[in-house]
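Many introductory courses stop at the sequence. We go one step further.
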Amino acid sequence: MRFHRIAALAVLIGLCVPAALAAQQAAPPPPAQKPAQQPTIVANVNTVPLTFLALDKKGHFVPGVTASQVQIYDNGALQKIQKFDSEGNLPLRIALLLDISNSIRDRWTFEQQAAIDFLQSVLVQGRDQAMVVGFDTTAHITQGFTDNYESLARAIRVLNPGGGTALYDTIYQVSHDDLGPASAAPGGERNVIVIISDGADDQSRYSRDEALAMAQDAGAVIYTIGTEPTGLDPVNDKVLERFTEQTGGRSFFPIEAHDLGTAFQSILTDLRHQYVVAYSPNNFIPNGAFHTVTIKILKKGVIARTRKGYFAR
């Protein structure tokens, strides 16, 4: 009897071991753990479009500038202008980014109405378009690009404050998906980002410089309206100013909530006086290096305000 039990056990082991080995060989190896995903920026620079303002020494707009009066320097080298458009002729694509975190609750009603009034004033139906994005811990697109003012106004009114702030992620997402490399924009528009925020960020995965680089790749001019009077939060004020100085826009810090309308009116005036020029860089190498850009206007006492440069990708 014992012999039979041992024999049976041997047979069972003989059957199970090969099966186990076969199963082990057939089982796929465990999937390799993905490395942490690094943000990438993809853009091909064939031509570099530059939006600029011509200003006198007092900051007043200078009309009537012609292509023959403009010189472009890319990393210090003079470039040949391929395209020039005079003041405000090209369509606008405006991304309105509204901070809806808890920090702006006290001023929210004023901000809503000022933003609605701004869009009503700036958009030319059939030519210009705008989108509305509220952001707290994430971005909430309540209206994609449209020239319908009523749809945009409704999209602003449905937003309500609450939560943290992911400013950098929102700039990155909108620049990439809606204005830049991944967008379906036909090209030839002036890309503008208008941000109402205190400049604080406590939720973003992307850094300030990554967000700025993506906005630069999209050719966006950034305007910011601070929700705190200037000087009360110098660190975050500098964040907002960094975005505008590098892209050719301006920062505003209204002292009172009812001054928001004045800030929006100043942005509107800028947009109506912009020139657009484009060129193809000499000896372009897509190595990711940053190229500084300078515009010189050949009129005495006149300077150009534009973005500081672009990444050669």
